[in-house]
Each structure stands twice: as C-alpha cells, then as structure tokens.
Design a protein that fits this description.
Blueprint: H1 4-21, E1 37-44, E2 47-56, E3 61-67, E4 83-88, E5 91-100, E6 104-112, H2 121-136, H3 152-156, H4 162-167
Antiparallel strand pairs: 1-2, 2-3, 3-6, 4-5, 5-6
InterPro entries: NiFe-hyd_HybE, NiFe-hyd_HybE_sf
Protein name: [NiFe]-hydrogenase assembly, chaperone, HybE
Length: 168
C-alpha cells in the first residue's frame, strides 16, 4: 500500500470531521449514533492514480473517487457540481464533482442519505466495507459446458472443431 493512500483518506476524514462541527452542526439530518470515517481507500485497478473508498458521515454515506495526489478539477475529474458516469468494477455509477481546498478535487456518489437507517456506527461501517468488497470482487470466468461449434467450413467438410482436430 502506497503511503499516500492512508494519508489522503485521513485528510478527507479530517475535513469532514471539521464540516460536521461547523457547516453541518445544526442540520437535523444528523444520525447521532454515527461519526465520520473514511473506509477502504485503495487504488482503482484501471486508474492507479485514483483511490476509491467510502466516506461515512452522520448525514450521508458516499462512494468517493479521490486522486492519490491533491489536484484541481479538470481533465481527469468532474468539475464541482457536474455529473458523470464512472465504471466501478462491474457497475456504472453517477458521480458528482466536488472540491474542498483542504483535499482538492474529488468525486462522490451517494449511497445513503440521510443515515437514519443505521442503528450504530458499526452497522454503517460494515455496510460500507461490504459495498467495497462487492465492487472490488472480480468476476471469474467459469468453464463453459456449451460445446464449441465447428467453423462453417469445418462443418461443411466434416472436420469438426479446431479442438477436435488438435486431438486427432
């Protein structure tokens, strides 16, 4: 694990702890049983310069695409407030561009908001971890039970499939 990964997730977590105590302090959508936590930030397989994780707060749970290095919105990230589809594992999600001076540009996809469905922080953190596990699971190919069909020419001339020709 790259040393910037925990630092970037920790910076995002710290930022949202500050937001929880300031901008969101008196907002009635807070679930008092929850706290701010950045969970599972790790590189995206096809984009090693991008980290993917989940941010849990008392008012939302978001899937977050966070650059490994702080940057401005633009070429590789959505600009603040703009929406765009992003592939995450086998799924496609709509993300929204965000920018905060303390961490730079990042993209968010709302998973839950508000957070009153969660009885405690452990339940929210477990849900976030399970979402990441499912998104990061690689679909493994299985052996097909459908027989390989012969090529058109092989069929017409009774030669079978390339596999049966190799066995002969």
């Amino acid at each position: 694990m790259n040393t910037t990964e925990p630092a970037r997730g920790a910076a995002l977590e710290l930022l949202f702890k500050k937001i929880a105590c300031t901008r969101m302090r008196d907002v009635p959508v807070h679930n008092p049983a929850l706290r701010v936590q950045a969970i599972g930030f790790a590189p995206v397989p096809d984009e090693p310069e991008m980290l993917l994780g989940v941010l849990v707060t008392p008012w939302f749970m978001n899937l977050v695409r966070l650059p490994a290095q702080a940057c401005l919105p633009g070429a590789t990230l959505l600009t603040n407030g703009n929406k765009g589809k992003r592939a995450v594992g086998p799924q496609s999600f709509e993300f929204v561009g965000a920018f905060e001076p303390d961490v730079g540009a990042f993209e968010v996809c709302s998973l839950f908001s508000p957070m009153f469905e969660f009885a405690n922080h452990a339940a929210a953190a477990d849900t976030a971890s399970e979402i990441l596990r499912l998104l990061r699971t690689t679909v493994t190919s299985t052996v097909s039970t459908v027989p390989t069909l012969p090529s058109r020419r092989g069929f017409l001339f009774g030669r079978g499939t390339q596999a049966t020709q190799a066995q002969a």
